[in-house]
Amino acid sequence: MHPFSYTRVSDTREALDAGRRGGRYIAGGTTLVDLMRETVERPGSLVDITGLPLREVSVTERGGLRVGALVRMAEAAAHPKVRTLYPVISEALELSASAQLRNMATIGGNIMQRTRCTYFRDVSAACNKREPGSGCAALEGFNRSHAILGTSDDCVATHPSDVAVAFAALEATVHLLGPDGERQVPFTDFLLRPGRTPDREQALRRGELITAVEIPALPRPLKSGYLKVRDRQSYEFALTSAAVALHVRGGVIREAKVAAGGVGTVPWKLPAVEQHLVGERPSQSLWAAVAARAADGARPLEHNRFKVELLQRTVERQLRIVGGMK
């Protein structure tokens, strides 16, 4: 681990001043400290923001949900409003990491976590995300766990977060505070596809701080859930996952929100699946037909071709679980 300075702040003004000077924000530290220990990350200054008042979960005036950036994953998963309004979020959080990590890690930190690509974490390997212009060892290496959607010739790493898939499906908004004031960014625009600049992963400006994630109000009744497929049942990242939310009234699907994880360089929204669900009646044939569109545009690599069919099966299964007609 390389030397660094450490500052603990007590209000947002102090935090923004430190961030403007190049300090890296840290709360639970469950990802950043690991990367520093492996010398993948080498920040010169850490700014501890755990003392900021960003720990509230509240219902918005319009009936949505606002989750403070410093709410612990375990706290968010157990919160009655989260479990009642958006069980897909609770399920995604409970299927993430270990209990110990969920007790430490924050919502803001979770969506900011960096890829678990082994080449990114191996400082001897070529990685454009870690060292722009050095190449991508995963393209010709062992790429079983890598992305099939949203990839580029410079990066094929997946985004590891489970709850980010739920946020993408529900069309959440990220609230930011920076030197230029407050702004809001749609969640699907906040996490960036690699393109030619895989080292730039979020739409953050210098010194900006995540203050909350807001989920919009959706029609009721709303059924939702999260399915995660992995090599083992405990503490493992997704091979594929699916976050589904459906509003069914009068036997017809009036609104559908679907996103996939474990397969994209960012949590992957599935608009083609959503569009083909709306206006239809739930049925086994419908689930199978729309799930076949889940992997549209996929670019599988040598070792992860199985993810195409696995993604389709994962989406179909979760549609049956949430929408009925099992």
TrEMBL record:
Superkingdom, natural source: Bacteria
Pfam families: CO_deh_flav_C (PF03450), FAD_binding_5 (PF00941)
SUPFAM superfamilies named in the record: CO dehydrogenase flavoprotein C-terminal domain-like, FAD-binding/transporter-associated domain-like
Keyword annotations: Oxidoreductase
InterPro entries per UniProt: CO_DH_flav_C (IPR005107), CO_DH_flav_C_dom_sf (IPR036683), Diverse_Substr_Oxidored (IPR051312), FAD-bd_PCMH (IPR016166), FAD-bd_PCMH-like_sf (IPR036318), FAD-bd_PCMH_sub1 (IPR016167), FAD-bd_PCMH_sub2 (IPR016169), Mopterin_DH_FAD-bd (IPR002346)
Coiled coil: none
Domain FAD-binding PCMH-type: 1-220
UniProt entry tagged with the keyword S-adenosyl-L-methionine: no
Entries under Gene3D superfamilies matching the protein: 3.30.465.10, CO dehydrogenase flavoprotein, C-terminal domain, Uridine Diphospho-n-acetylenolpyruvylglucosamine Reductase, domain 2
PANTHER family in UniProt: OXIDOREDUCTASE, XANTHINE DEHYDROGENASE SUBUNIT C-RELATED
Entry protein name: FAD binding domain-containing protein
Naturally occurring in which organism (per UniProt): Streptomyces cellulosae
